Amino acid sequence: MQKNESVTVTIQDMGVNGEGIGRVNGYTLFIKDAVIGDVVEARVTKAKKNYGYARLMNIITPSEHRVKPVCKFARKCGGCQIQEMSYEKQLEFKQNKVLGNLERIGGFSRELLSEVFGPIIGMEKPFGYRNKAQFPFGTDKNGQPITGFYAGRTHDIIANTDCALGVGVNREILEIVLAFMKKYGVRSYDEKTGEGLIRHVLIRYGFATKEIMVCVVVNRGKAEFGNCEELDCVNRGNRGTKGLERGSVMGLRWIPHQEVLVEELARIPGMTSITVSPNPRQTNVIMGERYEVLWGQPFITDYIGAVKYQISPLSFYQVNPVQTEKLYGLAMEYADLKGEETVWDLYCGIGTISLFLAQKAGKVYGVEIVPQAVEDARRNAEINGIENAEFYVGKAEEVLPGYYQRYEKEHPGERAHADVIVVDPPRKGCDEGLLKTMADMRPERIVYVSCDSATLARDLKYLCERGYEVKKGRVVDQFGMSVHVECVVLMSRV
Questions:
Q1: Cα separations (Å) of 44 from 4, 29, 51?
Q2: What pLDDT, in 10s, does the model give residues 207-244?
Q3: Are strands 132-139 and 145-150 parallel, antiparallel or unpaired?
Q4: What is d(CA 187, CA 199) in angstroms, rounded to the nearest whole number?
Q5: Among residues 334, 357, 332, 359, which one has the least CA distance to residue 344?
């Protein structure tokens, strides 16, 4: 196969990034925007020895699973990789993706997987489900500020204030910010020059409480003192606006004429928190290391089941609360708690799973590397009246092995024990030293929540070689229209 060669291909599978996979005389091609079942004309853009990449030029015969995308930017935007495939086929693809990785990487037989894995849990409404969105700001060719999402594999912004995966209020908020920037000449941040002010706008929405948070990420390290009389006028003029009395319309100025922006945003029903996060670094990291309250509270609240959570701009919180409740419900079911168990929850974030489990456990220990998240977890335990959960700052791969080794020294002849260990690691999965410690502690059950089935398969294989077996598993679609998916697996000690 040669570069620029045109071929006709039948799409047989999908890749990890949502690209269609087809074969021509045994040669594999990855073709973006192609759907399983399509017959397409494609032009080769890069040719390796055994595989290559091609651009979709024409759909000769559309797949029966191809649908018209809800968003007109679906192909350009990097957020939705498989929006042109029917949702039913998306679920089938994701289930097969997880089971395929467990079989190929983990070495589990298809017979075992068919026996222990139930059907994928899909979404009733696969659009408008995200409670969090981070919108980058840039400048169009006419010098006007724009916001939207990056085109796939680029930092070119596609101007769009109405993402189909987000909540409806996002558009109103973004239009207010853009209008404000145009009126007062506030410039967007330029990645190439490092100039400009507004980098991103983070929006969070509480599905249960209807509370709204807006955090503006700015390209500066410190604020200036504002006109106190002007700012106090905003306070006096908006005493009826929800939340103003419990907040502070700032004495420091981060954005020129910020009192006008705050006043406009505060009028939106449900607005609870308006903050700013300074980030002067030339980096791809979106948020700064801290945030300052401009108006209202420093957090919003939301519920997963009966547990209430306070969520700050820097908190990690699952973006799909409806599916998260189903995911955590499975974790609770698999943990099979009777009321006396000792549970370790590793990579606990703001305590979302920990507090869920604490409702039925004897004691829960949560471990998280981010200090702010641990502060949030402790506060969330307090506001829910949960007293049987403790949280520790540190790397899970250091905290748990360290605890295990100290226990052995302090209790000769004994080993530290946990009844249940729950892990919800990042995409890279668990460190081998952590997995070894987990197996050495001999919990009756390990509940593994995963956002990457490839590293899940690797880690399950390791644990199976050290005395555990897979008993149950379920895939949960948290991210409709994208290739990402979560799953939860129960392992029991043999």
A1: 5, 8, 10
A2: 999 999 999 999 999 888 765 444 443 433 333 333 34
A3: antiparallel
A4: 9
A5: 357
| 35 DSSP 8-state letter | -
> What single-letter DSSP state applies at residue 49?
S
List b or e across 176-190, with b for residues whose CB sees 16 or more CB atoms inside 10 angstroms.
bbbebbeeeebebbe
**Cα first-last separation, the chain:** 50
DSSP secondary structure of 85-135: B-HHHHHHHHHHHHHHHHHHTT---HHHHHHHB---B--S--SS-BSEEEE
Q: What pTM does this model have?
A: 0.91
DSSP state of 4: T
Pairing of the two strands 389-393 and 363-368 = parallel
pLDDT for res 227: 54
Contact 42, 31 (CB under 8 A): yes
Amino acid symbol at 337: L
SS3 state at 439:
helix
Per DSSP, the residues of 181-231 read HHHHTPPBP-TTT---SEEEEEEEE-TTT--EEEEEEES-SS-EE--HHHH
Q: What is the pLDDT of residues 408-445, one digit of tens each?
A: 999 999 989 999 999 999 999 999 999 999 999 999 99
**DSSP 8-class letter at 60:** E
Adjacent-strand bridge partners of 301: 310
Nearest-5° Cα angle at 231, 230 to 234: 95
What residues act catalytically? 451
Q: Token pair 């670094």 is at which residue?
A: 281
Alpha carbons 165 and 83: distance in angstroms, whole number: 11
Question: In whole angstroms, what is the distance from residue 473 CA to residue 454 CA?
Answer: 15
Are 457 and 470 contacting, i.e. CB atoms less than 8 angstroms apart?
A: no
Residue closest to 139 by CA, chosen among 122, 155, 116: 155
The DSSP H or E segment spanning 485 is none
Of the candidates 240, 256, 257, 259, the one whose C-alpha atom is nearest the C-alpha of residue 248 is 259
